[in-house]
Design a protein that fits this description.
Length: about 120
């Protein structure tokens, strides 16, 4: 019985350790996904498309795993905090955070896609 319990604990411990090993790589790749969405938003320069790019960046990052999801949340929150200092009103911040959460939770970013946005995005 002790041997079975020891093996079970060992298997659970190894599995847990294997998961955190991937976290930094997922976080790095998730940050790259967020940067790519930001660059695409700047390149597109398309009116009313920012929510789509928020959702897309968060979605792509979260698909990397827990590390990517964490990176998306930290980057999104930091971005909104910095922009909050520059804005006098927070009307757009709530909508941005909604789009961020939508993408991070696996929602289709195309929900926020504006009509006429070029297909390359």
């Amino acid at each position: 019985m002790k041997l079975i319990l020891a093996v079970l604990v060992l298997v659970l411990l190894v599995e847990t350790q294997a998961q955190w090993y991937h976290f930094p790589g997922q976080a790095f790749e998730g940050a790259r996904d967020m940067w790519r969405a930001y660059q695409d938003m700047r390149d597109a320069n398309y009116q009313n498309s920012d929510k789509y790019f928020h959702a897309r960046g968060n979605y792509d990052a979260a698909q990397r795993g827990p590390g990517g999801r964490w990176a998306a949340e930290v980057i999104s929150d930091a971005r909104e905090a910095v922009q909050g200092f520059a804005r006098h009103g927070n009307s757009d911040a709530a909508a941005d955070q909604e789009a961020n959460r939508w993408g991070r939770n696996g929602g289709d970013p195309n929900h926020y896609r504006p009509k006429g946005l070029p297909d390359q995005y």
